[in-house]
Amino acid sequence: MTRTTIQKINQIGVPVKDLARAIQFYETQLELPIMFNTDSMAFFDCKGLRLMLSLPEKEEFAYASSVLYFEVADIQQAYADFQSRGIVFSGPPHCVVKNGPAETWMAFFVDTEDNTHALTSNRVAS
């Protein structure tokens, strides 16, 4: 018997309180391309991974999402650029882990729906 294996994550759902406000944030400030939306959901393309914003169907689903980590090439440049778009960060980019010559840097922010997300970037230690 063949066991089923997960191939990849193809969609991440983020609960929102105000869909129009959330669409504005993800489309304008994060500049993610919107695929389509309905009265209760909006779908964005993040390089092949679909991000779904949705009004919770039941109260039990009305909570902040998991942290989404958006990869960028240059975290310092992205940090400055996103700040200029009005995104407020909890602090500047910082190294969260060193693995030999490689470093992983992150900068955390909150969207309009109180979901915490981060910009992340890997680079060679200087």
How many strand units?
Answer: 8
Helix content estimate: 10-25%
Structural class: alpha/beta
Secondary-structure element order, as H and E? Answer: EHEEEEHEEE
| Major sheet summary line | 4 strands, mixed
Superfamily (CATH H level) name: 2,3-Dihydroxybiphenyl 1,2-Dioxygenase, domain 1
Q: Examine the coordinates and then state which fold CATH places here, giving the name of the CATH topology.
A: 2,3-Dihydroxybiphenyl 1,2-Dioxygenase, domain 1
- The radius of gyration over CA amounts to 16 Å
Give me the number of helical elements: 2
The rough form would be described as: globular
Report the CATH architecture.
Answer: Roll
Range of strand content: 35-45%
Termini separation: 51 Å
Strand order of the largest sheet: 1-4-3-2
Low-confidence stretches: none
Average pLDDT, to the nearest integer?
A: 89
CATH class: Alpha Beta
Q: Please indicate the count of domains.
A: 1
Protein name: VOC family protein
Domain VOC: 8-122
Pfam family, one: Glyoxalase
Organism: Metaplanococcus flavidus
Structural account:
- The protein has one domain: 2,3-Dihydroxybiphenyl 1,2-Dioxygenase, domain 1 (Roll), CATH 3.10.180.
- It is 17% helix and 39% strand.
- It is built from 2 helices and 8 strands; from the N terminus they run E-H-E-E-E-E-H-E-E-E.
- The longest helix has 11 residues.
- The radius of gyration is 16 Å and the shape is globular.
